From TrEMBL, chain A:
Residues 61-277 form the Tubulin/FtsZ GTPase domain. It comes from the Eukaryota. InterPro entries: Epsilon_tubulin (IPR004057), Tub_FtsZ_C (IPR008280), Tubulin (IPR000217), Tubulin/FtsZ_2-layer-sand-dom (IPR018316), Tubulin/FtsZ_GTPase_sf (IPR036525), Tubulin_C (IPR023123), Tubulin_CS (IPR017975), Tubulin_FtsZ_GTPase (IPR003008). The keyword Ribosomal protein does not apply. It comes from Pipistrellus nathusii. Signal peptide: none annotated. PROSITE patterns: TUBULIN. This is Tubulin epsilon chain. Residues 279-414 form the Tubulin/FtsZ 2-layer sandwich domain. It is found in: Cytoplasm, Cytoskeleton. Belongs to the tubulin family.
TrEMBL record, chain B:
This is Tubulin delta chain. Residues 47-247 form the Tubulin/FtsZ GTPase domain. Acts as a positive regulator of hedgehog signaling and regulates ciliary function. The keyword Cytoplasm applies. Belongs to the tubulin family. InterPro entries: Delta_tubulin (IPR002967), Tub_FtsZ_C (IPR008280), Tubulin (IPR000217), Tubulin/FtsZ_GTPase_sf (IPR036525), Tubulin_CS (IPR017975), Tubulin_FtsZ_GTPase (IPR003008). PROSITE patterns: TUBULIN (PS00227). CDD domains: delta_zeta_tubulin-like (cd02189). Keywords: Cell projection, Cilium biogenesis/degradation, Cytoplasm, Cytoskeleton, GTP-binding, Microtubule, Nucleotide-binding, Nucleus. It comes from Pipistrellus nathusii (Nathusius' pipistrelle). The keyword Oxidoreductase does not apply.
Length: 475, 453
């Protein structure tokens, strides 16, 4: 089995990362009752004998001694990382896995990317190499960051190039939080567009997420839970947003609910690689099946169910509802409507007591209402993992390569152009060594080219495609 | 003679387990409906073919398990040892840490060369345990990366290293509506490569097995385990021992050799399918009785109308009238739906098997013009009942029944290829556009040849 390393960059990246590690521990504790360090746990955790000083003391089998996250924490301010190190998860991290500074990036991509990039390049390389050495077979880097700020956006994307050069065979999966329209960071469009260019060029797969969608999902859950409409109570521990019953109790902060959703996304994404099932799906299969052309690697995700009622016997009607919900625009983690756009490919990752017939029945049922590109009419990738997430009997993660990301990118470009045309705040960037106006124009063209590709695909939507003439052979 | 089974990838290993389990359970079944002595001979023959013996008497499957990541093999090994009646050899597994990512090119060009030597060594050890080798049975799927890509590579190695032994590849045809998005690419690459290096391709379609589970077995929530068990039942009904000649009391020694001889008269035609009748849940079995006449009538119609199971058969389909042209009414399109056969093998197991009349299968109209039923049709039998079915009949057929599915896969792969989608994932590992074109060419040839039967 393989291992993955999580690299959390910036304030947002580290807050989400923190939620992720908490949930990961919770999940493995629930599944692994005997406390034996097995291959599933080793995908994200090392087993360390804390009595042995220094870096040795890695134990590969037997009882769990002390689990250490396979993570590198990077932030140019100390606040968030310090909090993590003083909080209930402090034992899970190693002080040697951190890179911090004091001054922060001032919401400036150029500071994050150019200044801190060159300043910390060696250290970053060293920490990454160390974490890779601890892995038997490293398959994937998960990078978590936000696009609108300075550190996550700038330094986070600087990292990508480093990873590509240093570990070309290891997949780079990026979870990116995109700024919403009312973002309070004025320069977030600049930061985002500059970061997008890096994502276009150096990421294998990007999962774009925006705060507005997460917020809407939280509101919806609160509404339902508090409305009293539900006959029976919501199962405890089943709220995707909550850390109740968590391994180590954390103080719930305002963004925690939203971060928990993203953390669950990452857990579910990797579940079929970590746990057994009748139809496994490894991480390298995600890229293989969902990325038909190298640049089109943006995947819209949706997670269902968001809570579970206390019913023990799930009638298949409810199971089918789970599938329907995955395609509704209310459950997407970015503002997008995949049902009314064009699918290039779609993956359904199911966990729990769901069989192949349930999967097939629902695909058949939903297919007619979805539009797939002509050369991929049956573009479904499916997986069945037997282990459900904590608090649920089953769950579904849908990953769609769909042209519905286009509006998000177009809006981003809009906001960028509004600022750029007036040259607002540009001097903050241009005064950084290595930054020129061409950086901006190149980033903008890169995004435009991407949008153009999606537009071209959209144009094929209404064209009925006949079968192409086949090769003819002499008999 | 013994058969060495090679289980490749998730599919191959999950299925392989069910096959060995079915073979074992059946051979130890008390409802064989025959004498004790006969039952013992049956058991011994089955054992020689598929199991070798360990000191403490627990039979070991003659199998090599290969996968590029460990979860499935671990599961398979533990399932076998849990049931306790038979097991896999402790050192018969080859495993790596990272899978093939559904990438045929990765399975073929990276895993293949890297691991072929170790895998061939394991196979050699298994071969040495056999007194006499009938050949290899390779279980794999076409849709994924390991079974398909690595499977193709290993089959070619087997051809080089064991050129005198037979190889039959058992292939899982994926569901029409995707399990894997690049399944059509993986399928055409697999089929074209296997066509060059394998002796016969025995195909099972997931869609067909699924329907059998739904309609005949009445299973509500169908799992892969259910599907694999139906598959194992069908394979068991083909591979369990049968008598070697009319009236002989010895069991057939070389099942693979005989299968090839009966069913693959020409190297251009290697695609075989299995039909089995009756198939039902154990619960219903207790209340059913059958006659050979009824079973064979259905089986024959299943053959000529290309039905996958005994329900929903199209009884309108008739073989074309041979000989003189008809007066007045010209049959339109030489019976579009009629399934012409190149060769057929019917295997009968159970009570009063000697009374079964197979005349219907000897009708020349069923067969292509250049091979008459004397050569094209064969029958094997035993009165020992199979898997608790008082009477069961299996049909292994080399016919047009796979033309449509093959044509569909080639068509879809071609459409995708025209847009160049996903090609970069293959060229990354050395499979170029020419390799795709070669595959398309070969398979179009196969489709055309079968169409013209």
């Amino acid at each position: 089995m393989t291992q993955s390393v999580v690299v959390q960059v910036g304030q947002c990246g580290n807050q989400i990362g923190c939620c992720f590690w908490d949930l990961a521990l919770r999940e493995h504790a629930a599944v692994n009752q005997k406390g034996i360090y097995d291959e599933a746990i080793s995908s994200f955790f090392r087993n360390v004998d804390t009595r042995v000083a220094g870096d040795g003391g890695s134990i590969s089998k037997g009882k769990i001694c002390s689990l250490k996250a396979r993570a590198v924490l990077i932030d140019m301010e100390e606040g968030v990382v310090n909090e993590i190190l003083q909080g209930p998860l402090r034992d899970v991290f190693d002080s040697k896995q951190l890179i911090t500074d004091i001054s922060g990036s001032g919401n400036n991509w150029a500071v994050g990317h150019k200044v801190f990039g060159s300043l910390y390049q060696e250290q970053i390389l060293e920490k990454l190499r160390k974490s890779a050495e601890h892995c038997d077979c490293l398959q994937c880097f998960f990078i978590i960051h936000s696009m609108g700020g300075g550190t996550g956006s700038g330094l986070g994307t600087f990292l990508l190039k480093v990873l590509e050069d240093e570990f070309p065979e290891v997949y780079r999966f990026v979870t990116s939080i995109y700024p919403s329209g009312e973002d309070d960071v004025i320069t977030s469009p600049y930061n985002s567009i500059l970061a997008m260019k890096e994502l276009n060029e150096h990421a294998d797969c990007v999962l774009p997420i925006d705060n507005q969608s997460l917020f809407d999902i939280i509101s919806k859950i609160d509404l339902v839970v508090n409305s009293g409409k539900l006959g029976t109570a919501v199962k405890p521990k089943s709220l995707v947003t909550s850390s109740a019953g968590a391994f180590k109790q954390r103080q719930e902060k305002p963004f925690d609910a939203m971060n928990n959703i993203v953390a669950n996304l990452l857990l579910n994404l990797t579940s079929s690689a970590r746990f057994e099932g009748s139809l496994n799906m490894d991480l390298n299969e995600i890229s293989m099946n969902l990325v038909p052309f190298p640049q089109l690697h943006y995947l819209v995700s949706s997670l269902t169910p968001l809570y579970t009622l206390a019913d023990v016997n799930i009638p298949s009607r409810r199971l089918d509802q789970m599938f329907s919900d995955a395609f509704s625009k209310d459950h997407q983690l970015i503002q997008a409507d995949p049902k009314h756009s064009l699918y290039l490919a779609c993956a359904l990752m199911v966990r729990g007591n769901v069989q192949i017939s349930d999967l097939r029945r629902n695909i058949e049922r939903l297919k007619p209402s979805l539009q797939f590109v002509s050369w991929n009419q049956e573009g479904w990738k499916t997986s069945l993992c037997s282990v459900p997430p904590v608090g649920h009997s089953h769950s579904l993660l849908a990953l769609a390569n769909n042209t519905c990301v286009k509006p998000t990118f177009m809006e981003l470009r809009e906001r960028f152009m509004r600022l750029y045309k007036k040259k607002a705040h540009l001097h903050h960037y241009l005064q950084i060594e290595g930054m020129e106006e061409s950086c901006f124009s190149e980033a903008a063209s890169s995004l435009s080219a991407l949008i153009q590709e999606y537009s071209q695909l959209d144009a094929t939507k209404s064209m009925p495609m006949g079968d192409l003439p086949r090769l003819r052979v002499a008999v | 003679m013994s058969i060495v089974t090679l289980q490749l990838g998730q599919s191959g290993n999950q299925i392989g387990f069910e096959v060995f389990d079915t073979l074992f359970s059946d051979s130890h079944c008390s409802q064989g409906l025959c004498s004790k002595r006969e039952n013992e001979a049956y058991q011994a023959a089955c054992k020689e073919r598929f199991f070798s013996e360990e000191e403490n008497g627990v039979p070991i499957a003659r199998a090599v398990l290969v996968d590029m990541e460990p979860k499935v093999i671990n599961q398979t090994l533990s399932k076998a040892s849990q049931c306790g009646r038979w097991k896999y050899g402790q050192r018969s597994c080859f495993c790596q840490k990272q899978g093939s990512g559904n990438n045929w090119a990765y399975g073929y060009s990276v895993h293949g060369p890297r691991h072929a030597e170790s895998i061939m060594n394991l196979i050699q050890k298994e071969v040495e345990k056999c007194d006499s080798l009938s050949g290899f049975f390779i279980v794999m799927s076409m849709a994924g990366g390991t079974g398909s890509g690595l499977g193709a590579f290993i089959t070619r190695n087997l051809q080089d290293q064991y050129s005198n032994s037979l190889k039959m590849n058992h292939i899982i045809w994926p569901y029409g509506t995707g399990e894997v998005i690049v399944q059509n690419y993986n399928s055409i690459l697999t089929l074209s490569h296997l066509y060059r290096s394998s002796d016969a391709l025995l195909v099972h379609e997931n869609d067909a097995l699924h329907k059998i589970c739904a309609k005949l077995m009445n299973i509500k929530q169908i799992s892969f385990r259910d599907i694999n068990q139906v598959l194992a039942h069908q394979l068991g009904s083909v591979f369990q021992p049968t008598y070697s000649e009319e009236g002989s009391s010895h069991y057939r020694r070389n099942p693979l050799g005989d299968l090839m001889e009966n069913l693959v008269p020409h190297p251009e035609f290697k695609m075989l399918g299995v039909r089995n009748i009756p198939q039902m849940s154990e619960h219903s079995l207790a209340y059913s009785t059958f006659t050979w006449a009824g079973l064979l009538k259905h089986l024959r119609q299943m053959l000529i109308s290309n039905a996958k199971m005994e329900e929903g058969i199209d009884w309108q389909v008739r073989p074309p009238l041979s000989g003189a042209p008809t007066l007045g009414k010209m049959p339109v399109n030489r019976n579009l739906h009629f399934n012409t056969s190149l060769a057929n093998l019917v295997i009968l197991r159970g009570k009063e098997v000697h009374s079964a009349d197979l005349g219907g299968f000897k009708d020349p109209a069923l067969y292509t013009s250049w091979l008459g039923p004397d050569n094209a049709f064969n029958m094997w039998k035993t009165q020992r009942a199979f898997n608790k079915y008082e009477k069961s009949a299996a049909l292994v057929s080399n016919s047009q029944f796979l033309v449509k599915p093959l044509d569909m896969i080639v068509g879809k792969a071609w459409n995708m290829f025209a847009s160049k989608a996903y090609i970069h994932q293959y060229t990354k590992f050395g499979i170029e556009e020419e390799d795709f074109l070669d595959s398309f060419t070969l398979l179009e040839q196969v489709v055309a040849s079968y169409r013209n039967l």
